[in-house]
Amino acid sequence: MNDRIPLAIPDLRGNEQAYLARCVADNWVSSAGPFVTECERQMAALAGRAHGVATMNGTTALHLALVGAGVKHGDFVVVPDWTFAATANAVHHAGATPIFADVTEESWTLDPATLERVLARPPGRVGAVVAVHALGHPADIDALAPLCREAGAALIEDSAGAIGARYKGRPAGGLGDLAIFSFNGNKTVTAGGGGMVVTDDADMARRLRALCAQARIGAEYRYEAIGFNYRMTNINAAVLLAQIERLEEMVAAKRQIALHYDDALSGRNDLVAMPRRPWAESACWLYSVLCRNEDDARALVRHMAEREIEARLFWRTLSDQTPYAGAPTALSGMAARLSGTVVSLPCSSSLTAEQQVRVVDALAHFPPRRRVH
Ligand SMILES: Cc1ncc(COP(=O)(O)O)c(C=O)c1O
Q1: What's the domain range around 284?
Q2: Residue 282 and residue 218 in one domain
Q3: Most CB within 10 Å of its CB: which of 206, 312, 357, 362?
Q4: 195 lines ligand 1 (CB under 6 A)
């Protein structure tokens, strides 16, 4: 019996234990501490930014970024229709309404042509545009940024899964007005749970840091705004720092896995690897393939499960789901094409060569031949 191969799990082979032990020894276990400060500094540097503000997770980082960008009750925020619910949920938490826009066939990220159409005739004030670097592949920021600038809308990068990615040589997270990261357990770099907002604006960073901690002023119980309790704990930051130290190694491992799977799929048109553009160096967070239809995608997940390999049906469009029924849309069909037909394959940075061979072998035997009696 083969061991089960998981989809994307934490790779904790660095200083995690030592740093966690230090939190206990030094009595720094709560929502402040030296690891938090160091992670903020290192994440800002990684993204080429001046400031980082650590949060509990990527969703709270997005909420904070939207509030920081000035998104207000009654505003609209453009998001891709093909993303994780957190992107749109954070817009709702900020009091705004998402406009679901389509993605391109070339990169599965926000389509600049669609965005241009939306911004030409918006249903109301568009406070921000959230460009998701889908699955670790950067969105085409140089095409999106001028449109946002002209419309007076902040451009926020949802880099939840894109740590380590680069766009035309520049790091993901260093491209829009603000950017966020997630350090959830399935991400390349995990904190257990955690998030980060990065910005170049010192005043913005100060406001975000205050909002994160109930917007309290000084040591007394006085407040400058209605804030949140969104701070990362030093325990999470201890894990995060140990992970950041191994970022390059882990991203390199994921890129290697992607190349291996690319090879295995070359020449097939029933399973098509997620595109990677020449202007992008994808972080290859979740290696995913596009199937011909949903039946094929489900069959692939089953086929893998029978071989003790975890594969997963990926994002579904949000605009046609109950919580967002009735939200404005600008769709041309690509997001719908990806919805329920994309399957993610095992790609943890700790995936062994033998495990990769098992996945490749399982792909080679898909679809299974029908027995002829
Ligand atoms: C695109 C995207 N945005 C936001 C998030 C939210 O991050 P978190 O789970 O840390 O709240 C995720 C998480 O997977 C994501 O994939």
Answers
A1: 247-364
A2: no
A3: 362
A4: yes
- Evaluate whether 239 touches 232 at the Cβ level (below 8 Å): no
> Which one of 191, 226, 244 terminates a domain?
244
User: What are the pLDDT digits (tens) for 62-114?
Assistant: 999 999 999 999 999 999 999 999 999 999 999 999 999 999 999 999 999 99
pLDDT at position 368 = 84
CB 286 within 8 Å of CB 136: yes
Residues 133 and 187 in one domain: yes
Kindly state if the Cβ of 57 falls inside 6 Å of ligand 1.
yes
Looking at this protein, which amino acid is placed at residue 233? T
Domain match, 313 and 327 both? yes
DSSP string, 265-277: HTT-SSEEEPP--
Is 239 in the same domain as 258? no
**Whole-number Å distance between alpha carbons of 271 and 129:** 32
- What pTM value is reported for the model? 0.97
Q: Within this chain, do residues 228 and 83 fall inside the same structural domain, yes or no? A: yes
Of the candidates 218, 244, 270, which is a domain's last residue? 244
Residue 56 and residue 174 share a domain: yes
Ligand 1 contacts CB of residue 82 (under 6 A): no
Residues of the chain with pLDDT under 70: 1, 371-373
Contact 61, 182 (CB under 8 A): yes
Distance CA 326, CA 94 (A): 18
The pLDDT, as a whole number, for residue 373 is 62
Instruction: Indicate the number of domains in the chain.
Output: 2
Query: How many Å lie between the centroid of ligand 1 and the Cα of residue 79?
Result: 14
The finding on whether 236 has its CB within 6 A of some atom of ligand 1 is: no
**Which residue has tokens 């009696």?**
373
180 with 123, same domain? yes
Q: Is 288 in the pocket of ligand 1 (CB under 6 A)?
A: no
What is the total residue count of the chain? 373
Is 298 within a domain? yes
Return the CATH number at 79.
3.40.640.10
Instruction: Give the Cα separation of 238 and 37 in Å (integer).
Output: 10
What pLDDT, on a 0 to 100 scale, did the predictor assign at position 371?
65
H or E segment at 19? helix 16-26
Ligand 1 atom with minimal separation from the 57 CA: 10
Q: Is residue 179 part of a domain?
A: yes
Task: Name the burial class of residue 213, with classes exposed (0-12), middle (13-18) and buried (19+) by CB atoms within 10 angstroms of its CB.
Answer: middle
